[in-house]
Prior knowledge:
Structural class: mainly beta
Number of helices: 3
Largest sheet: 9 strands, mixed
Order of helices and strands: HEHEEEEEHEEE
Oligomer: single chain
Helix content: 10-25%
Strand order of the largest sheet: 3-4-2-1-7-8-9-6-5
Low-confidence stretches: none
Radius of gyration: 20 Å
Number of strands: 9
Mean pLDDT: 81
Shape: globular
Amino acid sequence: MTINSKIFSNLQEINPSAIIELFTLQLSTALHGANTLYRFHAGSNLNANGKIIWAGNEYLRFPIQVTGFSFQKGQLPRPKFVVSNGGNQGSSLANLSFSAILLSVNETTAGNDLTGAVVTRIRTLAKFIDAANFADGTNADADPNAEFPQEIYSIDRKASETREVVEFELAAPTDLAGVRIPGRQCTRSIFPAVGTFVG
Length: 199
């Protein structure tokens, strides 16, 4: 994983730009009955009260708290993804209830609770976000490719659900139950060089 050179250069400056953190939640038709993609931002960066547009996509402000991305010695991260269960009053997400999403998903796969949905963490710097985010509609530094490496996780389980919040435990795709690496056996009929040594 390498950091984009523009990001790296800006982080080395005395006054680096603020980090913008965005999230996507991708459902699967087979598991969840729909292929819905939700885009969020926590609304805490740059005092952003509405949407943030990144790479032409709208990320709506929604109360989210995600922790646990750091790597521990010998262990992959298992972040906690906590979202509001009451929507975001005053926004287009005012009526979004994760309990309602869970009920809908569980009609397709009983007891699924969004297990297997993909959560992607996207981070960039404020100076690189789309020009549409600025009052004058211009940003000479806008660059949809200037971002940190994306971090992709799957929802492993629902940890808790109350009227206020729903908490999920995330896992790396290779850290899920039943996942084996490599996903396919290497045989000579598919990979002729297997077992061949050159002296």
